[in-house]
Amino acid sequence: MEYSYSKVTKFNSNLFSFRFSFFSTGIAYLLYFYLKKNVGPTRTVSVTLLVPIFGMIF
Description:
The radius of gyration is 17 Å and the shape is elongated. Helix 1 packs antiparallel against helix 3. The chain is mainly α. It has helices at about 5-40, 40-45, 50-55.
């Protein structure tokens, strides 16, 4: 059975993109709940704006 290189590459890149985006969004949400607990909800509202930024950076 022969595999197409383009199909394997596409699958690997999609898998990497999914894992990478899941990891970075997870970090942002952990930061959100940590700040909510330690700083309070009023100051933590600004973190909701950081979630998309972390998603794009990482």
